[in-house]
Amino acid sequence: MTETNAGSPHAATSEAESDAVDHSSSANIEGSPVVADSDPLLEVRGLEKHYPITRGFLRREVGRVRAVDGIDFDIGRGEALGLVGESGSGKTTAAHSILRLEEPTAGEIVFDGESVTDLSGPNLRSFRRRAQLVVQDPNEAFNPRLTVGSAVAEPLSLHGMSDESRRRAIVEDVLERVGLSGDDADRYPHEFSGGEKQRISIARALVCNPDLIVADEPTSALDARVQSDVLALLADIRREHDISILFISHDLDVVRLFCDRVAVMYLGEIVEQGPIEDVLESPAHPYTRVLMNSVPSLDPSDRTFESPLTDTIPDPGDPPSGCRFHTRCPELIPPADLAVSDEEWQTLAAFRFTIETGELPSAVDPTTVGDVDAATVREEFDLPTELADQELNRRIGSAVEAVASGDVETAGQELASVLPTVCEQVVPTQSTHRGRPVNCHRYDPDREAEPVAWRGAGL
Amino acid sequence: MSSNANSTTTSTRSNEPLLSVDGLRTFIETEREQFPAVDGVSFSVDRGETVCIVGESGSGKSVTCESLTGIVPQPPARITDGQITFDGKRIDGASERELRSIRGDRIAHVFQNPQQALDPVYTVGDQIVEAMTIHGQRSGTSARERAISLLRKVGIPRADDRIDEYPHEFSGGMRQRVAIAIALAADPDLLVADEPTTAVDVTVQAKLIELLRDLTDDDTAILLITHDLRVVASLADSVVVMYGGTIVERGPVDTVFSTPAHPYTQALFDSYDGLSRRNDRSARGELPSDGCRFRAECPYAEPACEGGDQPDFYTLDSDADHSVSCVHFSPDGDPERVLDASTEVHSVSEVSR
Amino acid sequence: MSTDPSRHRFEDVDWNEIERTRSLVTSQRLIFVVGLVVLFAMYTYDSYTGLYFLGTWEVETLDWLVFAGLVFIGSFVGVPLVRHGARTKQIVRRIVSRPAHAIAMGFLSLLAFSGIVGPAIYGDVRISFGNQYNPPIGSTSKMGWANQCAGEVTTAADGFTRLCHGSMANPLGTNHRGQPMGYLLIEGASVAMDVVLFTLAFVVPLAAIVGIVAGFRGGRIDDLLMSYVDVQLCIPAILVFIMGYMYWNVSLLLLLVTFGLLSWGGIARIVRSETLQRREDGYVLVARSLGASAPYIGRRHIIPNITNTLVPAVFHLLALFVLVEAGIAFLGFHHIETYSWGSTIQEGLTLSVSTGQSYVDPPATSSKLWWVSTLPAIALTITLVSLKLSGDALRDALDPRQTN
């Protein structure tokens, strides 16, 4: 690679997506992977992975953790897809299911035209050679008892290359290509820095000449500068060998540097996906916006974070009904007949879902502070004292009284009945926003609610 | 931040910095080698101020902060040099007993991994109360009440219930909040936080940053160690940039972020801007033990960078508090050569989101 | 190494070609199978015609089992050691760099050599009561009237008592049956080696496999295996052994089987908990994503990483079994023709009871005929200490992070 920025991967976008998107075609710079046929390398359809919660010696199933609950995405040949979400969103489980490290509960994974779940024998071996994994923590990525050379040679010997001198030659060659030296093959993992270990990880993933690399937070344990080095190496390799990459991260900022497209996951579902520039320029789903707002700006004069409605991530074993994000959504849809302003609706909704999660702020927690009066509750939640709708006013008042008297359950029921929202009642279907899929009622043409304009800037 | 520790002797008590470090040197000695992990570091922290030390692993930022109260394990570490003045009193070379009374009581530490800071067999309440009673504060029911109010202060809901829970019952972000609550138990003047937001999700990080910001409103000074410039931008009043055991640049956050002067600081900013390519291992080279430590990687290196100690600090024309340890900024140097290359990329409008 | 550059580039590997020539045969498996076949052939030959390997050594069931164990250890430990010569040399260098560890390992090697080869060379030593109580070189003993002395005979200062001096014929002296002590020590070493090899070849692999399967598979299998281990830990092996002693012919095999099969629970638990910790490590995930089998992961990634706890535990178990065997033999629950160190010690301590025709002062016997029990006691002690030290030596030598 001669020029630093010319082929930088975040500028590169696969042709496969561009027909659905109205972004400028100038993003395709010379040297970037351009996909000739629209047949993707990996297709994931309705992938589900549920873990049973069992009890007793006979392991009777009493519930299920829906770690991944029906996700769809494609990865084109030579394309890098970022899978983004908080911990617990199911992104790592999804990656493991794709690699068949976990057996999916349902759904289909098609790799190069063949269903991965049906593979066996030589075909499965071939898949395991063509799809490789790079793990997160460089410190536990290597068996401390084996030299780096034997770690990198392991894929070769596992896939039947019995010629030891040839393995050695290939390993030395690949180590040099990731920026280390051939002699490093005889050293042990603990003699390398974190960044070097991650380079060796990439060498190990590369040595079988794969078509897909699944990289699970490959740089989250590294310093910024080392991180950008390692990402650059991964980008070069990807371009040189036309490798598709599934890049898992909790950090949109890293995905921005590396990926062509991004899929945002929340509680086992993909809420939005699309080309990275589009998503970062105008994120559609409120959760994507929350994620973007949580990344601190590099400008010291801009220090505000816009918070979600509540901070509690719901239990994946018992996900919220309707849209799973509704309990935290700052853009929750108000009922059509409710005569309140947007701001009033937000404070009321925040009040409702904070009460429902039971995570009362201590100032109004009657078990902590003893007697709480209604005024304190109103103050704590910034509730408007006077609403235009008298009926609403009265019922909010009674909920506030209930909270003050410690009866959180009644308050919750009262608020749920007076502040209903379509977001908790109906599971959003896939809509499109600027040609990319978004799972949010606000983008559903059949709903009255309109999308909220994105006020923020890009990362 | 006053950048020169010598000036503190002339200033009045109220203007005196809370903490000033002058010429701190800490060696790491192993059987095989001996090297200065911290090699002549000077900075100061005012009351209620947030100072961020930025650097990557191996820059000596953690050893610096652990040397302040002597919690750095000795051996292998050995503090050989330097004056540390805290609240007008010299604490370098203080006895272990004196240091213990300062540690936790006046200067509290928070670490990257809250698992290490929290004892899994005691409830969080016990641990907060313990931290208070060690410093002879209170005991009994009033201690418990204060523990609850501390948990409330760090933003833990239902504090009265959760005080009796064990660390494993808290999520990662909540555990870090508990660790901060323990650190605040003795009402310290200075909170030293080593990468407190590194191991958590971005959404949780945002909450922790807001929490730390609220603390400084109570006049608690914060010395924050991080490798993430974004965290610095969101928290710091002033910045200290470390490389190879030495400080290469320091100044108020606004000017350092608008005009990063040292080539290393610029390289740090570059990594937020796109992918860098330093693939060639030999180009990175060994860390020099004299002269400017960054010169092996520096695009502007010249013979003047070699030999002697890390170059002196030169103030920038734009801000007298902003100083940089680079020969190009000396009176005979040509600062424009370094700055020109950076200003195109690093004007504030470019880096804002 | 080939000069063809395409052989050095991973892009140019023809995986279809490699997939076609893929075979399940490895040198380890080959040697293991061939070794077992040869052993079985010899066993069959022996059962029909009788076979003497060396001298007059009669090969018994336990010996066959130990041979099978040696084939197993040789193919799955020995072959890799030979194949990775550089690593082996490094391990040896590390052991040698610590004198105490080197001496301990050296002693164990000597013990193994004399225990395995010694009895065959020594042959069958006839009991000759006439030769009883010849002292070791440099020591003397009072002689009974019927005694023969292989060395010089002198008369003591009282002018009546005849004293037998030690000689090269029996450098370590003889016992009350006139058997040379050297022979008895080597027989004892042979018994100790049987214990060690049987444990290494059967008990430790069983414990490791159960631990890895339980830790790796988890769930119901883990529950079942660990419940079984808990139950097993509650059964006192000595009780089972004594019941066996009452109903069957007593033999070393019976002892090894009862103690061996009832005492691996502790090691299985160690292996299981370490496996649980490492199951989610990155390198195990990567190996799984490459399609590695569970036995492969256990052998290559789990076992080498738990040597820090496993190796000392195994050597502790070996020392324990050697001591238990000696203790059982000391108590007399041993086969009469098995000359264990334990039984020799016991005989040395109760000479007056066991030797009716002795002419020697009963109260004085044990102390005056010190060599009979002291020599095997020393051998036993050094063996136990060596086993413990060797465990530490191997643990340190196997860990590449340890620096010398």
List keywords for this structure.
heterotrimer, A: 459 residues, alpha/beta, Rossmann fold, 2 domains, 16 helices, 34% helix, elongated, disordered N terminus, C: 404 residues, mainly alpha, MetI-like fold, 3 domains, three-stranded antiparallel β-sheet, transport (chain C), transmembrane helix (chain C), MetI-like_sf (chain C)
Fold and architecture overview:
- The complex is a heterotrimer of chains A (459), B (353) and C (404).
- Chain A is an alpha/beta fold.
- Chain A has two domains: 272 residues, P-loop containing nucleotide triphosphate hydrolases (Rossmann fold, 3-Layer(aba) Sandwich); 79 residues, no CATH class.
- Chain A has 16 helices and twelve strands.
- Chain A has a six-stranded mixed sheet with strand order 6-7-8-3-9-10, with helices on both faces. Chain A has a four-stranded antiparallel sheet with strand order 2-1-4-5.
- In chain A, a hairpin with a 2-residue loop joins strand 11 and strand 12.
- The longest helix of chain A has 18 residues.
- Chain A is elongated and about 85 Å long.
- The N terminus of chain A is likely disordered.
- The N terminus and C terminus of chain B are likely disordered.
- In chain B, helix 4 crosses helix 5 and helix 4 runs parallel beside helix 7.
- Chain B starts with 18 loop residues before the first strand and ends with a helix.
- In chain B, strand 7, helix 8 and strand 8 form a beta-alpha-beta unit.
- Chain B has an eight-stranded mixed sheet with strand order 6-7-8-3-9-10-12-11, with helices on both faces.
- With 404 residues, chain C is mainly alpha-helical.
- Chain C has three domains: 62 residues, no CATH class; 250 residues, MetI-like fold (Orthogonal Bundle), CATH 1.10.3720; 40 residues, no CATH class.
- In chain C, strands 1-3-2 form a three-stranded antiparallel sheet, with no helix packed on it.
- In chain C, a hairpin with a 6-residue loop joins strand 2 and strand 3.
- In chain C, helix 5 packs across helix 6 and helix 7 packs antiparallel against helix 10.
- The longest helix of chain C is centred in the middle third of the chain and has 37 residues.
- Chain C starts with 14 loop residues before the first helix and ends in a 6-residue tail after the last helix.
- At the A-B interface, helix 7, helix 8 and helix 10 of A face helix 5, helix 6, helix 8, helix 9 and helix 10 of B.
- Chain A: One of its GO terms (molecular function) is ATP binding.
- Chain A: InterPro entries: AAA+_ATPase, ABC_transp_ATP-bind, ABC_transporter-like_ATP-bd, ABC_transporter-like_CS, Oligopep_ABC_C, P-loop_NTPase.
- Chain A: Belongs to the ABC transporter superfamily.
- Chain A: Keywords: ATP-binding, Nucleotide-binding, Transport.
- Chain A: One of its GO terms (biological process) is peptide transport.
